């Protein structure tokens, strides 16, 4: 077995692991083609120069390294077998004046390359991008075009009601899937709606947001949940994650049980969580309406919780109950639309 220190050298992930792009994939090549053959067809990156900058993909050894190491569950090791990891590099060189060893002033070219990490779970048909948000926004079209020769990518945008369903499953004490369940949701926010003066709700830290008036009251007024954060149990791993409307996911690696794992192992667990969430979301979209949306009794219980916490109702929750009654009957709801708030993280 390789030396652990050597294996870890290229992987250091302090704080949050932030994934700013999630995609469902499907292979549309003619005939039978393996994932490895598809990866081999990507334009390869090789170091260029200021006069001849290069761009392309570099295959990373993350999947192989994960399989060489212990501490991971059998399910996560199996997940690594279906994983491809790539680094996309687009070279840029910056001119800068400096001095040589003789004190003579001369022009230097410093590398200022754009880099994005790409993780393809071809078993579950999920691709994740890891990179600075503004960089991804600027490079996404070029990146998708470079990847789309044999693979079709469809962007994943988590739905507001998907978050409400997760809260409902926690309230019911039910698992999200056979491999994933919620331990607790500790933070959440709702999107503001311009037609009223209530504003958005934002719970920064709570043992249970379902007991927080700052979360319950906006939901009962019809606000849409656009972000949740909590602790999830995936097999024998506990993972702290923040999931946002639009498909952005943060995975916390410093103040959760994951912090006992090495950086490389935390990346493996985090990537598996992403695939679980995307698969869960796709399955949720296929549920019957009565299973996809919570019943009126859920909103009644939330009203009771809020009143127990001292909330004095300023509106009638019957409107939101009626909205979800229609949804459970399969009647669409186009009365409210909002966009995710942009940030530069």
How would you characterize this protein structure?
Helices cover 33% and strands 28% of the residues. It has helices at residues 4-8, 35-41, 62-68, 74-81, 133-147, 160-172, 213-220, 263-285, 289-292, 296-308, 318-328, and strands at residues 16-19, 21-27, 55-60, 83-90, 93-99, 105-111, 114-121, 126-130, 151-155, 180-191, 202-203, 224-234, 237-244, 248-252. A hairpin with a 5-residue loop joins strand 5 and strand 6. Strands 1-14-13-12-10-11 form a six-stranded antiparallel β-sheet. Strands 3-4-7-8-2-9 form a six-stranded antiparallel β-sheet, with helices on both faces. Strands 5-6 form a two-stranded antiparallel ribbon. The model is unreliable at 1-7 and 335-345 (pLDDT under 50). The two termini are 38 Å apart. It is α+β, with helices and mostly antiparallel strands and 345 residues long. The chain has two domains: 28-155, no CATH class; 160-245 and 287-328, no CATH class.
Shape: elongated
Taking strands numbered 1, 2, ... along the chain, how are they ordered across the largest sheet?
1-14-13-12-10-11
Uncertain stretches of 5 or more adjacent residues: 1-7, 335-345
Rg on CA atoms, Å = 23 Å
């Amino acid at each position: 077995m390789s030396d652990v220190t050597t294996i870890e050298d290229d992987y250091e992930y302090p704080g949050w692991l932030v994934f700013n792009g999630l995609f469902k994939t499907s292979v549309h090549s003619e005939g039978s083609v393996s994932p490895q053959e598809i990866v081999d067809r990507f334009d390869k990156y090789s170091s260029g120069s200021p006069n001849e900058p290069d761009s392309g993909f570099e295959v990373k050894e993350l999947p192989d390294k994960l399989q060489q190491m212990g501490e991971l569950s059998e399910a996560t090791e199996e997940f690594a077998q279906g994983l491809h990891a790539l680094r996309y590099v687009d070279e840029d060189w910056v001119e800068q004046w400096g001095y040589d060893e003789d004190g003579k002033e001369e022009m230097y070219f410093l590398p200022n390359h754009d880099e994005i990490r790409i993780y393809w779970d071809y078993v579950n048909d999920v691709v994740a991008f890891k990179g600075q948000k503004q960089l991804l926004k600027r490079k996404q079209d070029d990146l998708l075009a470079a990847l789309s020769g044999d693979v079709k990518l469809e962007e994943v945008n988590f739905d507001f009601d998907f978050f409400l369903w997760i809260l409902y499953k926690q309230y019911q004490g039910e698992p999200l899937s056979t491999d994933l369940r919620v331990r607790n949701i500790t933070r959440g926010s709702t999107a503001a709606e311009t037609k009223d003066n209530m504003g958005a709700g934002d719970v920064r830290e709570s043992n249970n947001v379902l007991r927080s008036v700052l979360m319950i009251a906006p939901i009962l007024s019809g606000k849409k949940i656009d972000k949740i954060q909590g602790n999830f149990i995936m097999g024998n791993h506990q993972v702290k994650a923040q999931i946002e409307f639009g498909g952005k996911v943060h995975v916390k690696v410093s103040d959760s049980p994951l912090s006992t794992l090495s950086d490389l192992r935390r990346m493996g667990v985090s990537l598996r969580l992403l695939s679980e969430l995307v698969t869960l979301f796709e399955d949720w979209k296929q549920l019957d309406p009565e299973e996809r949306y919570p019943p009126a009794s859920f909103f009644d219980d939330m009203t009771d919780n809020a009143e127990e916490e001292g909330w004095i109702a300023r509106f009638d929750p019957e409107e939101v109950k009626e909205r979800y009654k229609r949804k459970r009957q399969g009647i669409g709801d186009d009365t409210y639309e909002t966009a995710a708030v942009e940030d530069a993280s």
